[in-house]
Amino acid sequence: MSEHTVIKKILITAGTHGNEMSGIEYLRNLQSNAQIHAQLVAQTTDIDIELAIVNTLAVARRARYVEEDLNRQFSQEKLSVLTGENLEHQLAVEFNLAFGPKYEPTRDLVIDIHNTTSNMGPTLIILQSDEFHQQMARYVKANMPDAIVLIEDHIPYKQHPYLCTIGKTGIMIEVGPQPQNVLRPAAYLQTEEMTKLVITFCDLWNKQALGELDVVEAFRLTEEVYFPLCSAGNKLAMIHPSLQNNDFTVLNIGDPTFLTFAGTTLGWEGEDQVYPHFIGESAYYHLNIAFALSRKTLI
């Protein structure tokens, strides 16, 4: 994204997953409460802000999705098939036509709000590390010191299958820990705070009024780690208690990682100085994903 690109249209989405309540309740409040909406709009003077609760049927059913994960339906391959293979795929096609299209985007920035059951705190997920996103990360961290910046630029931006990629640029706000179908006040307030900061940043970016911002710590996604399985495909172990809830804490060779159901501790056998996150995420449990890994960097 060019450093001179002006942000004119922002789309804020929630309910991409129907059981992640912070964004859903925040957007509901924005849509129904004129005072709260006015507070958001007051963050900028010349940006058009749209709101969308996306997977309304999943929200009504209090489910992550109805048939397939909506946040994996926005790849070029999926969007090129215009007849929906399932409910979420059809919804993605329709949403892309209404708010995209992905490869000729009409929205400058899409902010997609999520929750995680893991202890990731308020995390800003950026999919590119160009000047715009570097400055955004620095601004958010400067004004919200407990924020975490996670970079997922291991593939080109448009190759991601995420909903937010229908915009010229897109980010995700991921806040945890929060159980599914529950609203915790801390998660809600962090969601609101980070969303407002991103919008204020865009306003200052447009006006070239950001000033000097310090380089900040960030984490760059590297890979996913799976639970050990038996030959029948069943889990042999769980997350070790000393690792559980310690997202973005360094993991070194030999550190306790899994605890087998027989009571044996399995130490980390990968590379030194890696940083797990999405540790024990509920939505990934059926996929046998124990956690994701990242490397610490500066941005």
Automatic annotation (TrEMBL):
Details of cofactor binding: Binds 1 zinc ion per subunit.
PANTHER family to which the protein is assigned, alphabetical: ASPARTOACYLASE, SUCCINYLGLUTAMATE DESUCCINYLASE
Protein name from the UniProt record: Aspartoacylase
InterPro entries (alphabetical): AspA/AstE_fam, Aspartoacylase, AstE_AspA_cat, Aste_AspA_hybrid_dom
Keyword annotations from UniProtKB, A to Z: Hydrolase, Metal-binding, Zinc
Swiss-Prot/TrEMBL cofactor(s): Zn(2+)
Taxonomic lineage of the native organism: Bacteria, Pseudomonadati, Pseudomonadota, Gammaproteobacteria, Alteromonadales
A single Gene Ontology CC term: cytosol
Organism: Brumicola pallidula DSM 14239 = ACAM 615
Residue positions of the active site: E174
